[in-house]
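User: What would this chain look like folded?
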Amino acid sequence: MERMRRLAEKHPRYGYRRIWALLRREGWSINRKRVHRLWPSCEARLAEGLKVTRAQQRKRSRGSSENSCSIRRAKSPNHVWTWDFIHDRTMVRGPLKLLSLVDEYTRECLALEVSGSITAEDAIAVLRRQFLIRGAPACIRSDNGPEFIAKAIQRWLGSASVETLYVAPGSPWENGYAEAFHSRLRDEFLNIEAFASVKEAQALANMWRRDYNQERPHSSLGYLTPVEFRERCGQDATTVESDQTRPDREPEGSRYEWYRN
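Assistant: Here's the prediction, encoded as structure tokens.
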């Protein structure tokens, strides 16, 4: 019974037949019927640590290619935001989890949160701060990560009348603006800096985000910075974009040429 208990703790999804097979492989002279008789009832299994846990029901993906950045395009500042996670480590191998929030139209990094772990409630707190500063976007795009599809986030965004655009699973290119931002974040920041702690990583991330928004020329914006491009759009950071002011279609040519003309 002691050996059965230890095997069941190690393999909680195994039933009595598989435990019997493991005992036989170890050299125990015991038949399957005896293992079955010794296998306690459900309540006793719980007390003895032999309870077989239920298989977790997989969450169904909510994503669709109809929500990709090439189909549901951002038409103005504060129209579509995108967010995603990227991971790194401190010098002592402690985990770092970074949550980025980007305005797809202006490419401005609205938030770059760093922590050892970030829950759905933490993500809501990041959004709440940005909503107070900039107002709510029309849509927010993401993959199907558990934090993003959490019911708490869906309810909170629904109460703010923000549409959630979940891209198709296994299709990171459909959330291309987030992927492109993370490529620059990895190349220009995470691969260069060494972080002694989460606190230091957050401080350096804040500095890098300011430089990215205010100093770094962006090629797709005609080598304007994201802040300069937003200002040329005539969009104040605290102004809430309304449906009436959103253009119905993307201007021909690149955005910066259209605004320059």
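The longest helix spans residues 198-214. If you want, I can go into more detail on any region.
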